[in-house]
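An instance follows:
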Amino acid sequence: MGRLDNGETEKESVVAEWDVGGGARPCSSEVREEMDSQMQCDCISQDRSPRSGGKFSRPARTKLVAKTKKLYVNPSCAKSHPVCPKVKTPLENCAPQRQTCGTSSLAKILSEPQTHLNACLSSGTRFAQSSKGSPQPSTYLTILNELFKSERLTELEKEVKSKTMEALESLSRKIEEARLQQEHLLQDSRLLQRDTLCVDAEKNCFLRVLRKQSEQCKKKHGQLWNQYVQDLGEIIRRKQELTLRFAKQTEELQTQLFQGKIKQSQLEQQFQSMEHISSIQKSQEMKIQMLEKELEDVKAETARKDHQAHLQFLQRKTHLMRQIQELRSLQAGDHNTPEVRQKAQLFKSTAKKVNSEYCRSVCRENQELQEDLLKLIQEYYKLESIKRKLEMCKERLKEEQCYQEALVRGRGQLKAKREKSHTCDPCPPNQGVLRPH
């Protein structure tokens, strides 16, 4: 078992050296057969040597590794099977073409990466074909079976042979996985190159759109400037019209002021007629307060009556419970006489009557209290509506007073302006009104 473990480690070291030395480097089938046969011979010789003691010697192991290195670094193998060129990333391929813009440059960008994509794909297919054309592990197995027949081998050699066959099978599986991974990477590179082409096309479209928008903005700037000049002339013309309109409006305001005086006198008369509303409002507020107090008193009275009735009910209940306990004690004492039964029935009937009468009285009182409460609530809502109406009337009167005061102030200001205009410039009153200052 020790020899087998050493053989496995040596095989793994050889495979690792092969991977580090250049990946899946395509060599000839003769070289691989020679390497495998030498590895088997070395393993068998070490197994058969009596001095090894069940373990490979260290010089033989290093010698085997050196041989495999020589075989896989042989220049003749490299010349006979060229290595696949390095595939560039999509960003390296599309980097020089991103500086162009316009329709002709877009056509160049679309054509050049396509040719490079085809070249990369052809190189990838060549590499896949070379990996497919490499010797299959079945040839190794046939050679091993021919060289080392199971009839001539010992048990240890058979174990070594089976392990080498397993290692070769795992190696073939790894080669197949690497080939599949390469195909996936090629597909990803194709998708990335297509994405870069789409991004470049979108970038050029955005540049064209931005140029068009900049030209449109310049045109719009000129149009807005011309519009501004026209609007300025229109504003000056409207200013002159507004000055004339202001003069006319001042005359109209004077007429409105005269009408306001007439209306003020009418409102004063209405205010005097509506002075009694405040007294009505106060009396209604007093009624509302009294009703609220009555409502609170009714609630307290109902709670007190309910408590008293509940206490009476509890007292009757305790009395009846005592009587029932006495009856039960009599029944338990085998005094089951007709007199006792009659007495028990009488107690039960009286208890039911008392309970029903009490429930009826409580329900009747509750109904009466609810009716009283509904009446009080209706009166409360009526008084609230009257209160709102009075408040609205009060606010309306305040607004009318403010309007009258504003009219008085405006009239005083107009008089003061008229006096100032007469003192400063002795000209006709109409010309003095036309001045906007």
About this structure: Confidence is low (pLDDT under 50) at residues 1-31, 41-135, 426-437. The chain is about 85% helix and 0% strand.
